[in-house]
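Hey,

Quick one before I head out. I ran the complex with SN-glycerol-3-phosphate overnight. Inputs first:
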Amino acid sequence: MILIGHRGLPCLAPENSLEGFKLAAEAGLNWVEFDVQITQDNQLVLMHDDSIDRTTNGSGFVYNLTLKQLQSYALKTSDNLNISVNIPTLSETLNLLHQLKLQANIELKLPECLAEAELSIIRSRLLDAFLGYLNSLDSLDSAWPKASPWPLISSFDHAILISIRKHHPLVPLGFLVEEPNMALLALAKEYAPASINANFSFLTQDFVKLASQRNIRVLAYTVNQVDQAKILRDWGVYGLFTDIGDKLNLNLA
Ligand code: G3P
Ligand code: MG
Protein backbone atom coordinates (compact mmCIF):
# COMPACT_ATOMS: atom_id res chain seq x y z
CA MET A 1 0.00 0.00 0.00
CA ILE A 2 1.34 3.43 -0.92
CA LEU A 3 1.26 6.36 1.52
CA ILE A 4 0.55 9.75 -0.03
CA GLY A 5 1.43 12.92 1.86
CA HIS A 6 -1.85 14.85 1.78
CA ARG A 7 -0.93 18.41 0.70
CA GLY A 8 2.65 17.47 1.66
CA LEU A 9 3.32 17.10 5.36
CA PRO A 10 0.80 19.62 6.76
CA CYS A 11 1.53 18.99 10.44
CA LEU A 12 5.11 20.19 9.96
CA ALA A 13 4.96 22.72 7.10
CA PRO A 14 2.30 24.81 5.33
CA GLU A 15 -0.05 22.68 3.22
CA ASN A 16 0.66 22.69 -0.53
CA SER A 17 4.13 24.18 -0.07
CA LEU A 18 7.52 23.19 -1.48
CA GLU A 19 8.79 23.05 2.12
CA GLY A 20 6.14 20.44 2.94
CA PHE A 21 7.18 18.31 -0.04
CA LYS A 22 10.82 18.42 1.03
CA LEU A 23 9.84 17.26 4.53
CA ALA A 24 7.64 14.51 3.08
CA ALA A 25 10.64 13.20 1.13
CA GLU A 26 12.81 13.40 4.27
CA ALA A 27 10.16 11.39 6.16
CA GLY A 28 10.57 8.62 3.58
CA LEU A 29 7.33 9.12 1.65
CA ASN A 30 7.34 8.26 -2.06
CA TRP A 31 4.16 10.15 -2.99
CA VAL A 32 2.55 13.53 -2.31
CA GLU A 33 -0.85 14.94 -3.20
CA PHE A 34 -1.51 18.63 -3.83
CA ASP A 35 -4.36 20.84 -5.04
CA VAL A 36 -4.09 22.90 -8.22
CA GLN A 37 -6.23 25.84 -9.35
CA ILE A 38 -6.27 28.31 -12.22
CA THR A 39 -5.47 31.98 -11.63
CA GLN A 40 -7.09 34.97 -13.30
CA ASP A 41 -4.20 35.05 -15.80
CA ASN A 42 -4.41 31.31 -16.55
CA GLN A 43 -1.47 30.16 -14.44
CA LEU A 44 -1.56 26.92 -12.44
CA VAL A 45 -0.90 27.30 -8.72
CA LEU A 46 -1.22 25.21 -5.58
CA MET A 47 -4.09 26.10 -3.25
CA HIS A 48 -6.78 24.01 -1.57
CA ASP A 49 -9.52 26.52 -0.74
CA ASP A 50 -11.32 28.73 -3.25
CA SER A 51 -9.87 31.73 -1.42
CA ILE A 52 -6.41 32.37 -0.03
CA ASP A 53 -7.74 33.76 3.27
CA ARG A 54 -7.19 30.72 5.49
CA THR A 55 -3.68 29.78 4.39
CA THR A 56 -2.00 33.11 3.50
CA ASN A 57 -1.65 36.66 4.76
CA GLY A 58 -3.72 37.85 1.79
CA SER A 59 -7.34 37.68 0.79
CA GLY A 60 -9.43 36.90 -2.30
CA PHE A 61 -10.34 34.06 -4.65
CA VAL A 62 -7.59 32.32 -6.61
CA TYR A 63 -9.55 32.58 -9.89
CA ASN A 64 -9.84 36.36 -9.35
CA LEU A 65 -6.14 37.01 -8.65
CA THR A 66 -3.14 37.05 -10.98
CA LEU A 67 -0.03 35.00 -10.33
CA LYS A 68 1.86 38.19 -9.49
CA GLN A 69 -0.79 39.19 -6.94
CA LEU A 70 -0.81 35.70 -5.42
CA GLN A 71 2.95 35.65 -5.13
CA SER A 72 2.96 38.97 -3.28
CA TYR A 73 1.46 37.09 -0.32
CA ALA A 74 3.06 34.48 1.94
CA LEU A 75 1.68 31.20 3.21
CA LYS A 76 1.04 31.19 6.95
CA THR A 77 3.71 29.27 8.80
CA SER A 78 4.07 28.00 12.33
CA ASP A 79 6.28 30.04 14.65
CA ASN A 80 9.18 27.60 14.49
CA LEU A 81 9.41 27.83 10.67
CA ASN A 82 11.07 31.20 10.52
CA ILE A 83 10.94 31.73 6.74
CA SER A 84 8.65 33.30 4.17
CA VAL A 85 6.92 30.68 2.05
CA ASN A 86 5.35 31.46 -1.33
CA ILE A 87 2.39 29.93 -3.10
CA PRO A 88 4.08 27.52 -5.54
CA THR A 89 3.26 27.07 -9.22
CA LEU A 90 2.58 23.62 -10.65
CA SER A 91 5.70 23.86 -12.75
CA GLU A 92 8.09 24.61 -9.90
CA THR A 93 6.40 21.92 -7.80
CA LEU A 94 6.88 19.18 -10.38
CA ASN A 95 10.48 20.23 -10.95
CA LEU A 96 11.15 19.88 -7.22
CA LEU A 97 9.30 16.56 -6.93
CA HIS A 98 11.34 15.21 -9.80
CA GLN A 99 14.58 16.16 -7.99
CA LEU A 100 13.27 14.59 -4.78
CA LYS A 101 12.16 11.45 -6.67
CA LEU A 102 8.64 11.92 -5.30
CA GLN A 103 5.62 10.78 -7.28
CA ALA A 104 2.81 13.27 -7.71
CA ASN A 105 -0.96 13.24 -7.37
CA ILE A 106 -2.22 16.48 -8.92
CA GLU A 107 -5.76 17.24 -7.72
CA LEU A 108 -7.50 19.71 -10.03
CA LYS A 109 -9.77 22.00 -8.01
CA LEU A 110 -12.66 24.10 -9.26
CA PRO A 111 -14.18 26.87 -7.14
CA GLU A 112 -17.03 25.51 -5.04
CA CYS A 113 -18.46 29.00 -4.67
CA LEU A 114 -19.49 29.40 -8.34
CA ALA A 115 -22.71 28.46 -10.12
CA GLU A 116 -22.52 26.23 -13.23
CA ALA A 117 -22.41 29.01 -15.85
CA GLU A 118 -19.27 30.60 -14.39
CA LEU A 119 -17.91 27.25 -13.34
CA SER A 120 -17.91 25.92 -16.89
CA ILE A 121 -15.78 28.88 -18.01
CA ILE A 122 -13.25 28.23 -15.23
CA ARG A 123 -13.32 24.49 -16.03
CA SER A 124 -12.43 25.09 -19.64
CA ARG A 125 -9.64 27.56 -18.69
CA LEU A 126 -8.22 25.07 -16.20
CA LEU A 127 -8.46 22.26 -18.76
CA ASP A 128 -6.69 24.28 -21.49
CA ALA A 129 -3.89 25.40 -19.18
CA PHE A 130 -3.43 21.92 -17.75
CA LEU A 131 -3.44 20.15 -21.12
CA GLY A 132 -0.96 22.73 -22.39
CA TYR A 133 1.23 21.96 -19.42
CA LEU A 134 0.98 18.17 -19.92
CA ASN A 135 1.88 18.57 -23.59
CA SER A 136 4.91 20.65 -22.67
CA LEU A 137 6.04 17.89 -20.31
CA ASP A 138 5.75 15.42 -23.15
CA SER A 139 8.22 17.43 -25.22
CA LEU A 140 10.50 18.55 -22.38
CA ASP A 141 12.54 15.49 -21.67
CA SER A 142 14.64 17.30 -19.06
CA ALA A 143 11.60 18.31 -16.99
CA TRP A 144 9.81 15.00 -17.30
CA PRO A 145 12.06 12.19 -18.49
CA LYS A 146 10.24 9.53 -20.44
CA ALA A 147 11.17 6.89 -17.86
CA SER A 148 9.32 8.72 -15.05
CA PRO A 149 5.81 7.59 -14.21
CA TRP A 150 3.04 10.02 -15.10
CA PRO A 151 1.49 11.91 -12.21
CA LEU A 152 -1.92 10.72 -11.03
CA ILE A 153 -4.50 13.35 -12.05
CA SER A 154 -7.52 13.45 -9.76
CA SER A 155 -10.58 15.64 -9.29
CA PHE A 156 -14.03 15.73 -7.73
CA ASP A 157 -15.01 17.30 -11.08
CA HIS A 158 -15.33 14.17 -13.20
CA ALA A 159 -16.10 16.16 -16.36
CA ILE A 160 -12.57 17.57 -16.41
CA LEU A 161 -11.06 14.10 -15.97
CA ILE A 162 -13.07 12.75 -18.89
CA SER A 163 -11.89 15.66 -21.04
CA ILE A 164 -8.27 14.94 -20.09
CA ARG A 165 -8.69 11.29 -21.06
CA LYS A 166 -9.79 12.35 -24.57
CA HIS A 167 -6.37 13.97 -25.05
CA HIS A 168 -4.22 11.57 -23.05
CA PRO A 169 -4.92 7.84 -23.38
CA LEU A 170 -2.44 6.77 -20.72
CA VAL A 171 -2.27 9.32 -17.92
CA PRO A 172 -3.78 7.73 -14.76
CA LEU A 173 -6.96 9.41 -13.52
CA GLY A 174 -8.38 9.45 -9.99
CA PHE A 175 -12.15 9.86 -9.66
CA LEU A 176 -12.55 11.62 -6.32
CA VAL A 177 -15.76 11.05 -4.42
CA GLU A 178 -17.10 11.10 -0.88
CA GLU A 179 -19.10 7.87 -1.09
CA PRO A 180 -18.27 5.45 -3.92
CA ASN A 181 -20.87 3.37 -5.76
CA MET A 182 -21.19 0.89 -8.62
CA ALA A 183 -21.80 3.63 -11.20
CA LEU A 184 -18.42 5.15 -10.32
CA LEU A 185 -16.76 1.76 -10.73
CA ALA A 186 -18.21 1.58 -14.23
CA LEU A 187 -16.97 5.11 -14.98
CA ALA A 188 -13.45 4.28 -13.76
CA LYS A 189 -13.47 1.17 -15.95
CA GLU A 190 -14.60 3.17 -18.99
CA TYR A 191 -11.83 5.75 -18.53
CA ALA A 192 -9.05 3.38 -17.39
CA PRO A 193 -6.38 3.56 -16.23
CA ALA A 194 -8.32 5.12 -13.38
CA SER A 195 -8.73 4.75 -9.65
CA ILE A 196 -11.49 5.59 -7.21
CA ASN A 197 -10.27 7.98 -4.52
CA ALA A 198 -12.89 7.90 -1.78
CA ASN A 199 -13.46 9.18 1.73
CA PHE A 200 -12.26 6.26 3.89
CA SER A 201 -15.29 6.47 6.19
CA PHE A 202 -17.61 5.45 3.33
CA LEU A 203 -15.47 2.52 2.14
CA THR A 204 -16.39 -1.09 2.82
CA GLN A 205 -14.42 -4.26 2.41
CA ASP A 206 -17.01 -5.47 -0.10
CA PHE A 207 -16.59 -2.40 -2.27
CA VAL A 208 -12.79 -2.71 -2.30
CA LYS A 209 -13.23 -6.36 -3.31
CA LEU A 210 -15.64 -5.49 -6.13
CA ALA A 211 -13.20 -2.86 -7.40
CA SER A 212 -10.32 -5.31 -7.25
CA GLN A 213 -12.32 -7.87 -9.29
CA ARG A 214 -12.62 -5.17 -11.98
CA ASN A 215 -8.91 -4.22 -11.72
CA ILE A 216 -9.78 -0.78 -10.35
CA ARG A 217 -7.54 0.59 -7.61
CA VAL A 218 -9.15 2.20 -4.56
CA LEU A 219 -7.42 4.98 -2.66
CA ALA A 220 -8.70 6.38 0.64
CA TYR A 221 -8.55 9.90 2.10
CA THR A 222 -7.72 11.23 4.70
CA VAL A 223 -6.43 8.59 7.10
CA ASN A 224 -4.72 9.88 10.22
CA GLN A 225 -4.96 6.87 12.52
CA VAL A 226 -2.67 3.86 12.47
CA ASP A 227 -5.42 1.34 13.33
CA GLN A 228 -7.64 2.62 10.53
CA ALA A 229 -4.72 2.49 8.09
CA LYS A 230 -4.09 -1.16 8.98
CA ILE A 231 -7.74 -2.10 8.40
CA LEU A 232 -7.75 -0.43 4.98
CA ARG A 233 -4.47 -2.11 4.08
CA ASP A 234 -5.94 -5.49 5.01
CA TRP A 235 -8.94 -4.81 2.76
CA GLY A 236 -6.57 -4.29 -0.18
CA VAL A 237 -6.83 -0.51 -0.50
CA TYR A 238 -4.06 0.57 -2.89
CA GLY A 239 -3.13 3.89 -1.30
CA LEU A 240 -3.84 6.21 1.62
CA PHE A 241 -3.79 9.99 1.77
CA THR A 242 -2.53 11.07 5.16
CA ASP A 243 -1.62 14.24 7.07
CA ILE A 244 0.80 12.28 9.25
CA GLY A 245 2.92 10.61 6.59
CA ASP A 246 5.99 10.63 8.83
CA LYS A 247 4.25 8.69 11.64
CA LEU A 248 2.24 6.29 9.45
CA ASN A 249 5.35 5.44 7.47
CA LEU A 250 7.08 4.31 10.66
CA ASN A 251 4.05 2.48 12.09
CA LEU A 252 3.09 0.55 8.95
CA ALA A 253 6.62 -0.48 8.02
O1 G3P B 1 -7.24 13.70 -2.87
C1 G3P B 1 -7.61 13.44 -1.55
C2 G3P B 1 -8.06 14.68 -0.85
O2 G3P B 1 -7.10 15.69 -1.05
C3 G3P B 1 -9.40 15.17 -1.32
O3 G3P B 1 -9.94 16.14 -0.50
O4 G3P B 1 -10.49 18.44 0.15
O5 G3P B 1 -8.36 17.43 0.93
O6 G3P B 1 -8.64 18.09 -1.44
P1 G3P B 1 -9.32 17.59 -0.20
MG1 MG C 1 -6.70 17.48 -2.25
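The radius of gyration is 18 Å.

Talk tomorrow,
K.
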